[in-house]
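Figure caption, in words: inputs first, then the predicted bound structure.
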Amino acid sequence: MKTVAVLVGSLRRDSINRKFAESLAKLASDRLKFQFVDLGDLPVYNEDLWANPPASVLGLKAAIDAADAVLFVTPEYNRTFTPVIHNAIDWANRPWGKNSWAGKPAAITGTTPGATGTAAAQNSLRNIVSVVGAYLMTQPEVYFTYKPEVFDAEGAITNPETRAFLSGWIDSFARWIDRVGA
Ligand code: FNR
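Bound structure (FNR present):
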């Protein structure tokens, strides 16, 4: 089964984006294996640290290099994606000549309590994900307004229409990985 490194752009304990990502992992488990990457220990990008790279940086790059694809699950902060995601992208983009994103199949989603469902954040993130050379699935899109009642006590999505919609998106991502993956 193909593996997907999942980067959640929130470090918050009760992050709705992490909950959403975990529910997607459950839903995808018969097709894709989601592996969550810990971004909590990454220092803010500093070129000098490459002299003795932190284990968190090497771990991030190893996780992306080993995965068949990458999924970004971003909150929306002030109509863009979060610094946690930007920082992870910058770290794994370096050192020069060892860009972990190059040719990696990728997808973006995210959730917010707001009605726009992270549309602005995802739109901004598309630019940078493309710039670093990942092969981004641009369609279909998932803009998810978070409503607690859509999830059961185990975090699975219960609403049948929502399940079907997200399951279709996972199918598309699995096909995208097969088509463009190395
Ligand atoms: C937000 N939030 C937010 N929501 C939104 O829909 N559009 C936005 O532009 C913003 N801007 C914003 C800025 C900052 C600094 C914060 C802290 C929050 C609200 C945000 O969607 C909400 O806090 C989510 O719960 C964040 O996701 P996690 O951390 O729960 O995954």
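The chain has a mean pLDDT of 97.
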